Amino acid sequence: MVLRYICRRSNFCKQVMPSCTFNMVEELSKSHVYMKDPEFVKKTIQQMTNDGHEKLQVVADFDRTLSKFTNKGKVCSTCHNVLEESKVMPDFYKEKAKVLRDTYYPIEMNHDLTIQEKTPKMIEWYQKSHELFTQCQLTKTDIEHIVRDSSAFLRDGCQWFIDHLHKLEIPLLIFSAGIGDIIEEVIKQQSHMYENMKIVSNYMNFDNAGKMIGFKGDIIHIYNKNENAIHSSDYFERLNHRDNILLLGDSLGDLHMVEGAEVTNLLKIGFLNQKVKESLDLYKEKFDVVIVEDESLDVVNGITKAILNIPSQQ
After folding, report:
1. Catalytic residue positions?
2. What are the backbone angles phi and psi of residue 281, rounded to the nearest 5°?
3. Distance from chain centroid for Cα 1
4. Cα separations (Å) of 198 from 8, 30, 61, 215?
């Protein structure tokens, strides 16, 4: 159901609609939500609504997209941080992992560098991190305990989102440069893993005794999400009838997750969790909807309810 509301943001109204009244998802009027082209967003949501849920699929990043950036004022763990902060992990791992993070994370977040300049450094970071993991002889049981004791949390409203996609058999592809085993465990412990969900990420490899001995396949890092096996597989081909896509991400690299998909209507939703002043203009240029410093999926759920004709109160 497309909701009708009165826009209370005077500058926004002057730029978009002189009457300040138009059909749109109510959550999009919030002061922390930004759109470069509100009319495009409105038309795209309306078209997706008209087409129905049978035409829809969702492609989402995990860390700080489906999961929180902060919780109760404290920064939450990403997939890799879950390991770094765990009591299960040996001290040598924590010390070396911190050195790697302090070295490479500022490079990832430096908007003055091009993706081409960042990519070799990201590959170095992931290779060194994966080599370090392998030295710790983790087990599958360790992963379960590590996640349970961690500060990795799904965003408020994420369970509603996952449940309703499942009810209507809408495919959800979670495409992450994190660790697939950690992602699965977070979702299992805090929500549900359903058959309509697929995770493409860096998965650990275990020997017959249940000890971790490395990682499977090629490294997935933040800037090669357009090169991974998912794009050479038949995943998007099998879903080519679902040519309306909601893309959810928190980095510019996430914009490449749907390359290779059949797309008629694409709505790109970006979560800007930090460095807002420095990054907002760039995010507004690249994403259709930018959600700033919000630890919920309220805006995404509002859009989803509109597309699926679900009353806003549910």
Report:
1. 61, 63
2. -60, -40
3. 25
4. 39, 31, 12, 18
